[in-house]
Amino acid sequence: MEIEIATIGGYEEVGRQMTAVRAGDDVVIFDMGLNLSKVLIHDDVETERMHSLDLIDMGAIPDDRVMSDLEGDVKAIVPTHGHLDHIGAVSKLAHRYNAPIIATPFTIELVKQMIQSEDKFGVDNDLVKLDAGDSTKIGSGLELEFVNVTHSIIDAINPVLHTPEGAIVYGLDKRMDHTPVLGDPIDMKRFREIGREGVLCYIEDCTNANKKGRTPSENVAREHLRDVMYSLEDYDGGIVATTFSSHIARVTSIVEFAEDIGRQPVLLGRSMEKYSGTAERLNFAEFPADLGMYGHRKSVDRTFTRIMNEGKEDFLPVVTGHQGEPRAMLTRMARGETPYELESGDKVIFSARVIPEPTNEGQRYQAETLLRMQGARIYDEVHVSGHLNQEGHYEMLKALQPQHIIPAHQDLAGVSGYVNLARNEGYTPGRDLHISHNGNMIQLVD
Ligand SMILES: [Zn+2]
Fold first, then answer.
1. How far is the CA of 129 from the centre of ligand 1 (A)?
2. pTM above 0.85, yes or no
3. Which end of the chain is more exposed for a tag (fewer CB within 10 A), N or C?
């Protein structure tokens, strides 16, 4: 059976991930992501109303026009998890394919919400839920399996396409967590079994491939948070926390420790409400029954007013804005645009790392400076990454023993660390280690 892989997006950047695998006459697409930084750099761009081709020209979504060079029918679109760089282009591209979207329940729900807020295209692909650990038949003689992985969002999987030529393992995104705060540990046992059955190709998430050692478990971030928050138990002023709103495990830890130190947590900001509300509704997370989640500007400001009236020392707002995004809640608070008044000595906990990109770094610097000007004290990087470091990559290669490797989810500089470690394991660029670019085709079996 002929096997061909199209590396469509996310092979020259972190963002707008998209890869297609053709096995015989059947094609499966993995991820359709958005590169948000290409959108945010323009003022007031509303992607909901934009046409796909304009977004492709901006470099915001994958240029899927190369799909016409793949001689087969698309049988499934498979987003791996709910991060925007993996699902953010579904509402712009999926309608061009007569194929169902297959994903885990939490991811499907996020895809559904995105399709509903799309103004330009009517996306009516079937939405099919498949749980981690389950499989489904695809096309003629293929099987799609979801292997449970751990990442900075719940219900993440690595899809595996079983073909007569061996398995294609799509490894975006994960870290190796044996003690996650929410959900099951990564299923290394299954990866090792798949390795013994025979892996034709492994497509790997190289986000942290230049980082030595091992990515710590989410449990480490949780203990770090506990240490920081418990140390503030006697502080009688304002404490504000911010983190990735899609990082449900982290949000649950912050909420829990806020209550432990005698404060009422409250989630503020549109995306805070969206992700935590969805996770609670689908029973992925349990929050206190009286936990407030407010997204709309008016209800947020009303909550801030109540906090100021009743006393800041009794509350702990969990807000958006960990990257210093100009329109996010924390930045508005820093600019004094909300009823919440920061005072000298108030604590701001960033349970996040700045995404190392000039725009983010600049915006975060600005937000932090504004916070400091009001006397706020900063707790930074109470966080662990959601991506494998080098030792995790070595472990995955040992488990899977793939014939071919395609590094992804980085630019060339970011991929370099992975190329070095794969060479150490006996792979050779140009032979079985394929350094690709957007819009490229790799023929693995003729
Ligand atoms: Zn991700």
1. 19
2. yes
3. C
